[in-house]
Amino acid sequence: MRVWGRAGPQGSIVGSLILHFCERLPDDHSRTGKEKEELDRAVALSLAEDLQRPKGYKWRTDQDEDLARSLQDNPNSSSYPPYLPPYAPSYAPWEYNPNSYRKCSGCYRDIVSGNYLGCMGTFFHPECFLCRACGVPITEYEFSLSGNNTYHKTCFKEMTHPKCEVCHQFIPTNGAGLIEYRCHPFWSQKYCPSHENDNTKRCCSCERLESRNARYMSLGDGRSLCLECMESAIMDTGDCQPLYHSIRDYYEGMNMKIDQQVPMLLVERQALNDAIEGEKHGIHHMPETRGLCLSEEQTVTSILRRPRLGGRGLVGIRTHPQKLIRRCEVTAILVIYGLPRLLTGAILAHELMHAWLRLKGYRGLSPEVEEGICQVLSHMWLESEVMPASRNMPSTSTSSSSSTWSSSKKGGKSQAENKLGEFFMHQIAHDASPAYGGGFRAAYAAVNKYGLRSTLDHIRLTGSFPL
């Protein structure tokens, strides 16, 4: 058996195999040196012709058959093995010993007669030369080698070549012959770069791209929601009220009680955008606004009854126009509908902090300071939900209020919902915007160093975070 190789993808070795024929020969020491020399020359010539073949190798070449026939017909012919250095395994004895045979590295039995293979300095019966991945014998001309393991080329590609998690095809190589793909920084979802521009849907909550075998639900306003986020989605104002009151309790547990009864409404995307336009004050918002602490008197269309599933979208949504009267510094809190419970709660915690600051007389704060401290409260609430033993839990009674609602409604948070909560915390911590991202990190560092109450007192006096 002779093996030669060339480098393959992912550091594998693509080898070409030649099958040889081995016969048990009688012990005969009467061969002359001249006969050995002639046979050695014939075998070397056969090797040279094999290496010049342009289209690979055959399992048994014509020369191999002639050599085997010669060995059968002439028991006094050379007893040398049918290969020559440098192709012979380094440990194989060149002088033939009739009392010891090659051992198969697959079944560990002697290879006495018949076909055999040589690879990686050892030998195999053809039926024992197996693919490590599928366990089927390798019969192709070429195979892949990784370490000491052999594979069919197709099996090795299945193992090592990344597949797109959107279209489920092998991710293609770029012009330089390299495998290029995109990967979500939190979910590690790998996908072809083309899916960023081919109208593939992206979940408006968790940001994962829609897989071809897991369709997303359309919310009817250009947003789509994956089925995992859909499981805990809050769809109307009545459905959101218990969550809203539990977060107010969370504030009260930190001695930040909001005395005024600020209305909370779940609204459609367009209603939220209209409310933003109606605000007279310079309010700072994210590129995709999902919540609003309203200060002006407006008529807002809220969602009165949750929509029902219809095909791949939601139908039957019922809205109600509501006149909001300003009785204090805060008119209402608005949150976009259709988001999972933990994201809805994070938005409510953020907007309630805006309300608390206005009701307590915090004025003229820069976007970095106001949005930063609001993001800290949002992050703290998420942390209390995802990691209940967190140091940021305000009190046992507050924790009970929030988690009781969740448990009674859904039977407790699932592992998937907890993972969503971790993702929303990751979003807050790694936001790239100056106000929401930079502001959060500055506020978070101040709260960790001085505590929340001291940080708020410093903001009231100086309008900035303590250093």
From TrEMBL:
Keyword annotations of the record: LIM domain, Metal-binding, Zinc
* A Pfam family the protein falls into: DA1-like
SMART domains assigned: LIM
- Kindly give the InterPro entries that the UniProt entry links to this protein: DA1-like, DA1-like_dom, Znf_LIM
Q: A GO molecular function for this record? A: metal ion binding
Query: Which CDD domains would you find in this protein's record?
Result: LIM_DA1
- Protein's name according to its UniProt entry: Protein DA1-related 2 isoform X2
What is the native source organism of this protein? Answer: Nicotiana tabacum
